[in-house]
Amino acid sequence: MSRAESGFGRKKRRGGSRRAAGTHTEEHADYGRDDDGYDQDYDPEEDFSAEYGHTQDRSGDQDSYEEYDYDDADYDDRDGDDPQADGTVGGRRGGRRRSKEKRGVGRVSAFSASAIKKVSVLGDRPNQIVYTLAEQSKRKRGTAVLGMLLGAFGIALVALLGVLAYQLVSGGGGTSGGDQSVVAPPDGHSTLTPEQYRFQENDPEVFGPIDERPAEAELMTEEAVFGSVGELELGDMQLELRDSAVTDSCTSMVWGDELGQSLIDGDCVNAASGVYTDSDNEYVAQVTLFDLADSEAATDAAAALDPTNSETDLGFLLSQTGGDIEGLQEGYSQASTQVMGHYLAVFWTAKADGSEPGDDSDLATLDVASMSAFSFVYDEVVAYRGEEGE
Questions:
Q1: What is the tens place of the pLDDT at every residue in 268-279?
Q2: Of the ranges 31-35, 44-48, 173-177, which is most confident?
Q3: What is the pLDDT of residue 142?
Q4: How many helices (DSSP H) and strands (DSSP E) are in the chain?
Q5: Rounded CA Rg of the chain
Q6: How many angstroms separate the CA atoms of 337 and 305, rounded?
Q7: 8 A C-beta contact, residue 319 and residue 235
Q8: Smallest Cα–Cα separation from 353: which of 380, 374, 326?
Q9: Distance from C-alpha of 78 to C-alpha of 342, rounded to nearest angstrom
Protein backbone atom coordinates (compact mmCIF):
# COMPACT_ATOMS: atom_id res chain seq x y z
CA MET A 1 0.00 0.00 0.00
CA SER A 2 1.44 3.39 -0.98
CA ARG A 3 1.57 6.49 1.23
CA ALA A 4 -1.29 8.03 -0.75
CA GLU A 5 -3.43 4.91 -0.29
CA SER A 6 -2.77 4.68 3.45
CA GLY A 7 -4.44 8.01 4.15
CA PHE A 8 -1.26 10.15 4.58
CA GLY A 9 -1.56 11.74 1.14
CA ARG A 10 -2.99 15.16 0.34
CA LYS A 11 -5.30 16.82 2.78
CA LYS A 12 -8.52 16.43 0.81
CA ARG A 13 -8.16 12.70 0.39
CA ARG A 14 -7.19 12.21 4.05
CA GLY A 15 -10.15 14.24 5.17
CA GLY A 16 -12.51 12.31 2.93
CA SER A 17 -11.43 8.95 4.31
CA ARG A 18 -12.02 10.19 7.84
CA ARG A 19 -15.57 11.30 7.00
CA ALA A 20 -16.29 8.04 5.32
CA ALA A 21 -15.08 5.99 8.26
CA GLY A 22 -17.40 7.83 10.62
CA THR A 23 -15.28 6.90 13.62
CA HIS A 24 -14.38 10.46 14.65
CA THR A 25 -16.29 13.24 16.33
CA GLU A 26 -17.46 16.30 14.55
CA GLU A 27 -14.50 18.21 15.90
CA HIS A 28 -12.07 15.86 14.20
CA ALA A 29 -14.16 15.85 11.05
CA ASP A 30 -13.72 19.61 10.74
CA TYR A 31 -10.00 19.17 10.02
CA GLY A 32 -10.98 17.82 6.61
CA ARG A 33 -12.86 20.91 5.49
CA ASP A 34 -11.55 22.94 2.60
CA ASP A 35 -11.98 26.22 4.52
CA ASP A 36 -9.79 25.40 7.57
CA GLY A 37 -6.75 27.08 6.02
CA TYR A 38 -4.54 24.06 5.70
CA ASP A 39 -5.29 23.48 2.01
CA GLN A 40 -3.34 26.60 1.09
CA ASP A 41 -0.20 26.32 3.30
CA TYR A 42 0.30 22.88 4.76
CA ASP A 43 2.03 20.10 2.87
CA PRO A 44 2.73 17.01 5.02
CA GLU A 45 5.35 15.83 2.56
CA GLU A 46 7.28 19.08 2.54
CA ASP A 47 10.93 18.62 3.57
CA PHE A 48 12.04 20.99 6.39
CA SER A 49 15.39 19.31 6.98
CA ALA A 50 17.35 21.84 4.91
CA GLU A 51 15.98 24.66 7.01
CA TYR A 52 17.40 23.10 10.18
CA GLY A 53 20.75 22.15 8.75
CA HIS A 54 19.95 18.54 7.81
CA THR A 55 19.35 16.93 4.42
CA GLN A 56 17.73 13.69 3.46
CA ASP A 57 18.15 11.62 0.36
CA ARG A 58 14.64 11.15 -0.86
CA SER A 59 15.81 8.88 -3.67
CA GLY A 60 16.69 5.99 -1.33
CA ASP A 61 14.30 3.49 0.17
CA GLN A 62 15.64 3.80 3.68
CA ASP A 63 14.87 7.53 4.24
CA SER A 64 11.96 7.90 1.80
CA TYR A 65 8.45 8.35 3.09
CA GLU A 66 6.92 8.03 -0.40
CA GLU A 67 8.43 4.64 -1.25
CA TYR A 68 7.75 3.00 2.07
CA ASP A 69 5.31 0.05 1.89
CA TYR A 70 3.29 -0.48 5.01
CA ASP A 71 2.27 -3.95 3.89
CA ASP A 72 5.81 -5.15 4.63
CA ALA A 73 6.10 -3.35 7.99
CA ASP A 74 6.90 -5.38 11.04
CA TYR A 75 4.29 -4.11 13.48
CA ASP A 76 4.42 -4.78 17.12
CA ASP A 77 0.80 -5.87 17.53
CA ARG A 78 0.73 -6.24 21.28
CA ASP A 79 -3.10 -6.53 21.36
CA GLY A 80 -3.21 -8.95 18.47
CA ASP A 81 -4.88 -6.40 16.19
CA ASP A 82 -3.56 -4.96 12.99
CA PRO A 83 -2.90 -1.24 13.60
CA GLN A 84 -4.07 -0.51 10.05
CA ALA A 85 -7.32 -2.39 10.54
CA ASP A 86 -8.10 -0.16 13.44
CA GLY A 87 -8.77 2.68 11.01
CA THR A 88 -7.40 5.27 13.48
CA VAL A 89 -4.67 7.77 12.95
CA GLY A 90 -2.93 6.62 16.13
CA GLY A 91 -2.57 3.13 14.83
CA ARG A 92 -1.05 4.26 11.57
CA ARG A 93 1.29 6.67 13.38
CA GLY A 94 2.46 3.95 15.74
CA GLY A 95 3.26 1.62 12.85
CA ARG A 96 4.96 4.38 10.92
CA ARG A 97 7.10 5.37 13.93
CA ARG A 98 8.34 1.85 14.52
CA SER A 99 9.09 1.36 10.83
CA LYS A 100 11.11 4.60 10.84
CA GLU A 101 13.17 3.49 13.79
CA LYS A 102 13.79 0.21 12.10
CA ARG A 103 15.06 1.84 8.92
CA GLY A 104 17.19 4.52 10.70
CA VAL A 105 14.96 7.53 10.21
CA GLY A 106 14.66 7.85 14.01
CA ARG A 107 18.09 9.51 14.10
CA VAL A 108 16.48 12.69 12.78
CA SER A 109 12.98 12.38 14.18
CA ALA A 110 14.37 11.81 17.70
CA PHE A 111 14.96 15.53 17.93
CA SER A 112 12.19 18.01 17.73
CA ALA A 113 12.29 20.66 15.03
CA SER A 114 12.77 23.33 17.67
CA ALA A 115 15.79 21.51 19.18
CA ILE A 116 17.41 21.06 15.78
CA LYS A 117 16.81 24.69 14.97
CA LYS A 118 18.44 25.82 18.24
CA VAL A 119 21.57 23.79 17.53
CA SER A 120 21.69 25.15 13.99
CA VAL A 121 21.33 28.74 15.13
CA LEU A 122 24.11 28.40 17.73
CA GLY A 123 26.61 27.31 15.08
CA ASP A 124 30.04 28.05 16.62
CA ARG A 125 28.53 29.62 19.69
CA PRO A 126 28.82 26.51 21.93
CA ASN A 127 32.61 26.87 21.77
CA GLN A 128 32.31 30.56 22.51
CA ILE A 129 30.12 29.79 25.50
CA VAL A 130 32.72 27.33 26.79
CA TYR A 131 35.45 29.95 26.40
CA THR A 132 33.30 32.53 28.16
CA LEU A 133 32.61 30.21 31.08
CA ALA A 134 36.30 29.38 31.32
CA GLU A 135 37.17 33.06 31.33
CA GLN A 136 34.60 33.70 34.04
CA SER A 137 36.08 30.87 36.07
CA LYS A 138 39.53 32.39 35.71
CA ARG A 139 38.19 35.74 36.79
CA LYS A 140 36.58 34.18 39.83
CA ARG A 141 39.85 32.48 40.76
CA GLY A 142 41.71 35.74 40.20
CA THR A 143 39.22 37.55 42.38
CA ALA A 144 39.68 34.95 45.12
CA VAL A 145 43.47 35.25 44.95
CA LEU A 146 43.24 39.03 44.99
CA GLY A 147 40.95 38.84 47.98
CA MET A 148 43.43 36.61 49.81
CA LEU A 149 46.29 39.00 49.02
CA LEU A 150 44.29 41.98 50.19
CA GLY A 151 43.39 40.11 53.36
CA ALA A 152 47.05 39.24 54.03
CA PHE A 153 48.02 42.86 53.34
CA GLY A 154 45.36 44.04 55.76
CA ILE A 155 46.65 41.71 58.49
CA ALA A 156 50.24 42.86 57.93
CA LEU A 157 49.13 46.49 58.05
CA VAL A 158 47.28 45.94 61.32
CA ALA A 159 50.34 44.20 62.79
CA LEU A 160 52.61 47.07 61.70
CA LEU A 161 50.27 49.64 63.19
CA GLY A 162 50.22 47.61 66.40
CA VAL A 163 54.03 47.60 66.58
CA LEU A 164 54.18 51.33 65.89
CA ALA A 165 51.53 51.99 68.51
CA TYR A 166 53.44 49.89 71.04
CA GLN A 167 56.67 51.73 70.31
CA LEU A 168 54.86 55.05 70.61
CA VAL A 169 53.30 54.13 73.92
CA SER A 170 56.42 52.55 75.37
CA GLY A 171 58.76 55.18 73.93
CA GLY A 172 56.67 58.32 74.43
CA GLY A 173 57.58 59.81 77.79
CA GLY A 174 60.17 57.04 78.34
CA THR A 175 63.75 56.40 77.33
CA SER A 176 64.72 54.95 73.98
CA GLY A 177 67.94 55.03 72.04
CA GLY A 178 71.44 53.76 72.60
CA ASP A 179 73.77 51.76 70.41
CA GLN A 180 73.26 48.15 69.43
CA SER A 181 76.86 47.86 68.26
CA VAL A 182 80.07 49.75 68.97
CA VAL A 183 80.49 52.82 66.75
CA ALA A 184 83.98 52.92 65.26
CA PRO A 185 85.91 56.08 66.13
CA PRO A 186 87.10 58.37 63.30
CA ASP A 187 90.36 57.60 61.54
CA GLY A 188 93.41 59.26 63.08
CA HIS A 189 91.69 59.91 66.40
CA SER A 190 93.73 60.56 69.53
CA THR A 191 94.26 57.66 71.93
CA LEU A 192 95.34 59.88 74.79
CA THR A 193 94.66 58.53 78.28
CA PRO A 194 94.94 60.60 81.48
CA GLU A 195 98.10 60.48 83.58
CA GLN A 196 95.99 60.56 86.71
CA TYR A 197 92.67 58.80 87.10
CA ARG A 198 90.42 59.03 90.15
CA PHE A 199 87.25 57.07 90.69
CA GLN A 200 84.43 57.93 93.10
CA GLU A 201 81.83 55.25 93.60
CA ASN A 202 78.12 55.80 94.00
CA ASP A 203 76.83 57.31 97.21
CA PRO A 204 73.40 55.74 97.95
CA GLU A 205 72.59 58.34 100.58
CA VAL A 206 72.86 61.08 97.98
CA PHE A 207 71.89 59.34 94.74
CA GLY A 208 69.64 56.61 96.12
CA PRO A 209 66.45 58.04 94.50
CA ILE A 210 68.02 57.67 91.05
CA ASP A 211 69.94 54.45 91.62
CA GLU A 212 67.95 52.94 88.75
CA ARG A 213 66.70 54.78 85.71
CA PRO A 214 62.92 55.13 86.02
CA ALA A 215 60.86 53.64 83.21
CA GLU A 216 59.18 57.01 82.61
CA ALA A 217 62.47 58.96 82.62
CA GLU A 218 62.99 61.27 79.67
CA LEU A 219 66.17 61.51 77.63
CA MET A 220 68.65 64.23 78.42
CA THR A 221 68.53 67.38 76.34
CA GLU A 222 71.23 69.98 75.77
CA GLU A 223 69.14 72.68 77.38
CA ALA A 224 68.30 70.56 80.43
CA VAL A 225 71.92 69.63 81.08
CA PHE A 226 73.86 72.77 80.10
CA GLY A 227 71.23 75.50 80.09
CA SER A 228 71.94 76.55 83.68
CA VAL A 229 75.72 75.96 83.68
CA GLY A 230 77.02 78.20 80.91
CA GLU A 231 79.66 79.43 83.34
CA LEU A 232 81.58 77.64 86.11
CA GLU A 233 83.48 79.45 88.84
CA LEU A 234 85.70 78.34 91.72
CA GLY A 235 88.05 80.81 93.50
CA ASP A 236 90.04 82.59 90.83
CA MET A 237 89.11 80.00 88.17
CA GLN A 238 86.32 81.05 85.85
CA LEU A 239 85.21 78.83 82.96
CA GLU A 240 82.86 79.38 80.07
CA LEU A 241 80.97 76.79 78.04
CA ARG A 242 82.59 76.71 74.63
CA ASP A 243 80.69 73.83 73.01
CA SER A 244 78.08 71.26 74.02
CA ALA A 245 76.13 68.38 72.51
CA VAL A 246 73.79 65.53 73.45
CA THR A 247 73.74 62.29 71.49
CA ASP A 248 71.84 58.98 71.68
CA SER A 249 74.98 57.17 70.51
CA CYS A 250 77.01 56.62 73.65
CA THR A 251 79.74 54.60 71.96
CA SER A 252 80.43 57.46 69.50
CA MET A 253 81.88 59.40 72.44
CA VAL A 254 84.61 56.84 73.24
CA TRP A 255 87.28 54.67 71.66
CA GLY A 256 88.09 51.10 72.68
CA ASP A 257 85.88 48.11 71.89
CA GLU A 258 85.64 46.85 75.47
CA LEU A 259 84.66 50.27 76.77
CA GLY A 260 82.08 50.63 74.04
CA GLN A 261 80.67 47.18 74.80
CA SER A 262 80.36 48.04 78.48
CA LEU A 263 78.16 51.01 77.54
CA ILE A 264 75.99 48.78 75.38
CA ASP A 265 75.72 46.14 78.10
CA GLY A 266 74.83 48.89 80.59
CA ASP A 267 71.92 50.04 78.34
CA CYS A 268 73.35 53.52 77.85
CA VAL A 269 70.63 55.48 76.04
CA ASN A 270 72.35 58.84 75.52
CA ALA A 271 75.29 61.00 76.53
CA ALA A 272 75.91 64.72 77.08
CA SER A 273 79.25 66.41 76.50
CA GLY A 274 80.50 69.99 77.07
CA VAL A 275 83.85 71.75 76.67
CA TYR A 276 84.85 74.60 78.99
CA THR A 277 87.82 76.95 78.81
CA ASP A 278 88.97 79.91 80.87
CA SER A 279 88.93 83.44 79.50
CA ASP A 280 92.63 83.25 78.60
CA ASN A 281 92.24 79.85 76.89
CA GLU A 282 94.96 78.53 79.20
CA TYR A 283 92.96 75.62 80.60
CA VAL A 284 90.43 73.22 79.15
CA ALA A 285 87.92 70.87 80.73
CA GLN A 286 85.71 68.31 78.97
CA VAL A 287 82.76 67.01 80.95
CA THR A 288 80.70 63.95 79.86
CA LEU A 289 77.59 62.38 81.37
CA PHE A 290 76.39 58.88 80.41
CA ASP A 291 72.81 57.77 81.11
CA LEU A 292 72.88 54.04 81.97
CA ALA A 293 70.41 51.55 83.39
CA ASP A 294 71.56 51.66 87.02
CA SER A 295 74.51 52.40 89.31
CA GLU A 296 75.99 48.93 88.75
CA ALA A 297 76.17 49.48 84.98
CA ALA A 298 77.71 52.92 85.60
CA THR A 299 80.34 51.35 87.85
CA ASP A 300 81.27 48.76 85.22
CA ALA A 301 81.69 51.47 82.59
CA ALA A 302 83.91 53.47 84.97
CA ALA A 303 86.13 50.40 85.43
CA ALA A 304 86.47 50.06 81.63
CA LEU A 305 87.50 53.73 81.47
CA ASP A 306 90.28 53.27 84.02
CA PRO A 307 93.61 53.21 82.14
CA THR A 308 95.27 51.55 85.11
CA ASN A 309 92.84 48.62 85.11
CA SER A 310 94.77 45.62 83.79
CA GLU A 311 91.62 43.54 83.48
CA THR A 312 90.26 45.64 80.62
CA ASP A 313 91.67 46.81 77.31
CA LEU A 314 92.62 50.43 76.86
CA GLY A 315 89.90 52.85 75.99
CA PHE A 316 88.83 56.33 76.92
CA LEU A 317 86.91 59.41 75.80
CA LEU A 318 87.38 60.95 72.39
CA SER A 319 88.52 64.55 72.63
CA GLN A 320 85.85 67.10 71.65
CA THR A 321 88.17 70.13 71.85
CA GLY A 322 88.91 70.44 68.14
CA GLY A 323 92.19 70.98 66.33
CA ASP A 324 92.99 74.43 67.78
CA ILE A 325 93.49 73.06 71.31
CA GLU A 326 96.30 70.56 71.87
CA GLY A 327 95.21 69.68 75.39
CA LEU A 328 93.21 66.40 75.69
CA GLN A 329 94.76 65.27 72.41
CA GLU A 330 98.37 64.99 73.44
CA GLY A 331 100.52 65.76 76.47
CA TYR A 332 99.48 65.65 80.09
CA SER A 333 95.90 65.30 81.38
CA GLN A 334 94.04 64.03 84.40
CA ALA A 335 90.51 62.71 84.90
CA SER A 336 88.00 61.99 87.62
CA THR A 337 84.93 59.76 87.33
CA GLN A 338 81.93 59.69 89.61
CA VAL A 339 78.96 57.30 89.66
CA MET A 340 75.85 59.38 90.34
CA GLY A 341 73.02 56.89 90.60
CA HIS A 342 72.40 55.52 87.09
CA TYR A 343 74.61 58.27 85.62
CA LEU A 344 78.37 58.14 85.07
CA ALA A 345 80.11 61.54 85.06
CA VAL A 346 83.64 61.97 83.64
CA PHE A 347 85.67 65.17 84.20
CA TRP A 348 88.74 65.36 81.98
CA THR A 349 91.08 68.39 82.41
CA ALA A 350 94.38 69.65 81.04
CA LYS A 351 96.36 72.72 80.12
CA ALA A 352 95.43 73.98 76.66
CA ASP A 353 98.97 73.32 75.41
CA GLY A 354 99.16 69.85 77.04
CA SER A 355 102.09 70.81 79.25
CA GLU A 356 102.87 69.39 82.70
CA PRO A 357 101.23 71.24 85.66
CA GLY A 358 104.43 71.39 87.76
CA ASP A 359 103.83 73.01 91.10
CA ASP A 360 100.86 74.91 89.75
CA SER A 361 97.68 74.10 91.67
CA ASP A 362 95.37 75.67 89.12
CA LEU A 363 94.86 72.35 87.35
CA ALA A 364 93.58 70.82 90.59
CA THR A 365 91.22 73.79 91.02
CA LEU A 366 90.03 73.33 87.42
CA ASP A 367 89.26 69.69 88.17
CA VAL A 368 87.05 70.55 91.14
CA ALA A 369 85.33 73.41 89.32
CA SER A 370 84.38 71.16 86.40
CA MET A 371 82.56 68.80 88.79
CA SER A 372 79.88 71.42 89.32
CA ALA A 373 78.86 71.17 85.65
CA PHE A 374 76.21 68.52 86.31
CA SER A 375 73.80 70.27 88.60
CA PHE A 376 71.20 68.63 86.34
CA VAL A 377 71.76 65.34 88.19
CA TYR A 378 71.25 66.93 91.59
CA ASP A 379 68.08 68.62 90.41
CA GLU A 380 66.79 65.18 89.35
CA VAL A 381 67.66 63.72 92.74
CA VAL A 382 65.71 66.48 94.47
CA ALA A 383 62.74 65.94 92.16
CA TYR A 384 62.55 62.19 92.78
CA ARG A 385 63.19 62.57 96.48
CA GLY A 386 60.23 64.96 96.67
CA GLU A 387 58.01 62.40 94.91
CA GLU A 388 59.03 59.74 97.43
CA GLY A 389 58.04 62.03 100.34
CA GLU A 390 54.54 62.63 98.96
A1: 999 999 999 999
A2: 173-177
A3: 59
A4: 13, 9
A5: 56
A6: 9
A7: no
A8: 326
A9: 115
